[in-house]
């Protein structure tokens, strides 16, 4: 039975775990998610499971239909192209917002995420790799200081990553993130933007 950490609320922990499983491909497109089975898996009541499924449905990762339950969503090719464009706009906007005021602590936060990403890459831990990929991009958006921007960004990136097959080559993706962080470290805003846009595909 899976044990959950206690640092966050049960709903948040369950939502994080389900999200990670979906984005890592452990829960495939169309998979039905049943409250009772999830409650047993995470050793919690059905109430936080229900809340977590509602949250992930609002993010676009899951689809809920009357009398059909909840299942992992699919993203069509046309929608994927739209999501890529929207995500680039948001993340570039965020980066340009905070870049002029970056400091050593900012660089250290990005580097810490990169270190965890590389460790996951070397151990071929796809689930952790996907989590750290999202963590790095989320840090960029959060540094803008606008919580509404994060709220807009999260469902976009979550749905986009449903079919993020580029993670099949983790080292290639890792090196793309290295380019982003190195440009930030060097204080080259245009290079950071170019590396960011190249990574979001």
UniProtKB/TrEMBL annotation:
The keyword Transcription regulation applies. GO terms for molecular function: DNA binding; DNA-binding transcription factor activity. SMART domains: FCD, HTH_GNTR. Gene3D superfamilies: GntR ligand-binding domain-like (1.20.120.530), Winged helix-like DNA-binding domain superfamily/Winged helix DNA-binding domain (1.10.10.10). InterPro entries: GntR_C (IPR011711), TF_FadR/GntR_C (IPR008920), Tscrpt_reg_HTH_GntR (IPR000524), WH-like_DNA-bd_sf (IPR036388), WH_DNA-bd_sf (IPR036390). PROSITE patterns: HTH_GNTR (PS50949). Keywords: DNA-binding, Transcription, Transcription regulation. Residues 8-75 form the HTH gntR-type domain. The keyword DNA-binding applies. This is Putative HTH-type transcriptional regulator YdfH.
């Amino acid at each position: 039975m899976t044990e959950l950490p206690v640092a966050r609320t049960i709903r948040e922990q369950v939502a994080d775990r389900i999200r990670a499983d979906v984005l890592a491909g452990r829960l495939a497109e169309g998979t039905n998610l049943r409250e009772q089975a999830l409650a047993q898996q995470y050793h919690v009541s059905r109430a936080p499971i229900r809340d977590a499924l509602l949250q992930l449905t609002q993010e676009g990762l899951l689809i809920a239909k009357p009398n059909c339950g909840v299942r992992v969503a699919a993203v069509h090719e046309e929608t994927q192209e739209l999501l890529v464009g929207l995500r680039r706009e948001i993340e570039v906007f965020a980066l340009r917002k905070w870049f002029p005021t970056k400091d050593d602590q900012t660089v250290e936060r990005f580097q810490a995420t990169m270190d965890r990403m590389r460790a996951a890459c070397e151990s071929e831990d796809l689930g952790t790799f996907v989590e750290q990929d999202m963590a790095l991009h989320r840090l960029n958006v959060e540094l803008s200081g606008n919580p509404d921007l994060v709220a807009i960004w999260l469902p976009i990136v979550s749905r986009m990553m449903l079919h993020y097959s580029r993670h099949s080559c983790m080292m290639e993706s890792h090196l793309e993130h290295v380019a982003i962080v190195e440009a930030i470290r060097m204080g080259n805003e245009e290079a950071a933007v170019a590396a960011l846009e190249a990574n979001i595909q």
